[in-house]
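User: I'm writing a short report section on ligand binding and want a predicted complex to refer to. Could you take this sequence and adenosine-5'-triphosphate and write out the structure as tokens? A short remark afterwards would be nice.
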Amino acid sequence: MTESRPGNDSPRESPSPGEPVSPSLLLPVKEPAAPIVPPEARVAGSEKKRRLVRAASVPTRPGCVLAVGGGKGGIGKSLIAANLGIELARRGKRVVLIDADLGGANLHTCLGVQPPKVTLSDFIDRKVGKLNQVVVPAGLPNLGLVSGALDSLDVANPRHGEKVKLLRNLRALPVDFVLLDLGAGTSYNVLDFFLTADHGILVLVPEPTSVENGYRFIKAAFFRRLAAIQAVYGIEDLVTEAMSRRQENGIKTPYEVIAAVHERDPAAGENLEREMGRFRPGLIVNQARSDTDREVGNAVVAAWHKYFGLEMDYLGAIGYDDEVWKAVRKRRPVLLESPGSETAVAMARIADRLLQLDGTSGPAQAVR
Ligand SMILES: Nc1ncnc2c1ncn2[C@@H]1O[C@H](COP(=O)(O)OP(=O)(O)OP(=O)(O)O)[C@@H](O)[C@H]1O
Ligand SMILES: [Mg+2]
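Assistant: Sure. The structure tokens for the complex follow:
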């Protein structure tokens, strides 16, 4: 398959007034690299390091937040979130899956559990005070679920403050991994969940439309993060100027925006470059039918580097697998219904790679 080239920035992807960005959320607090330790063992010291900007490569640690997103619907985000959660739980990690597809919640069905009586609505509507009060068992040890609101418009469109509260509470859950299943599209809600994660994982299928949507998604996330960084460093004017003179200066990519800022103010440019360099999403290609399809992941990573000047980690591919849709029809996760399936093997490799990436910051290797 030919590599799909990222297109030019569209105005709606630029930093825009829109919904306010909360810098403290987009640049979550991080602690130095540490091995997984049980939450009980991390009481001391967890308060002291309110660091503004997160580490380039985030170590696995209690409460590591993963978010599975992508520009398109129906590409396997929920399938991956549910089964990756199961894979990690089976390895003894404590995992809470959160159905953050506000307005389109169906993660409980992917997991084969009944619609829970308590959902995210109860937390958002303040019927309960803590997020862990809406965690329900998800069918196997170590795995919990926060189900999305099934019919609440309030939750489908949370107010900014509600979203901030939810994002903050993710890190208070006493688990090893919080895994967010995101909705489709590039709304601010989706992007903010993606950006708050320690590892944002982009899913795409090897079709030009999906690859295009994938770039659009990741570019929108990039600009949302850029907006937060501008606010932190007080360089809104410089970035706005670079953005507004895009046409006349021939600026086409996010990397060139950074270069333009650098030209005007080297110190500001360096800050921006360093912070944006920390924007390092993971990538999964789903429904691959050939080796060429699997190579699309490496091509996307290479294009992201070439045109955006940034890194992305290819976590691996999942083949198109009849066992998947058969399991979906039985309302069972494929890892439980068909543990020897190609998808189960692929999911295990992806989990290996994800865990391996924790605490490392070297460039991604090509993955087949
Ligand atoms: N690897 C695969 N092999 C075969 N079928 C697949 C595969 N991945 C996904 N599917 C099919 O695609 C359907 C949609 O997957 P899923 O619900 O995970 O997508 P989604 O990206 O979460 O969609 P939405 O944005 O609507 O929530 C699944 O129900 C399944 O039938
Ligand atoms: Mg989904």
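A remark for your report: Strands lie at 64-69, 95-100, 135-137, 143-146, 177-182, 199-204, 282-288, 313-319. The CA atoms of residues 141 and 200 lie 25 Å apart.
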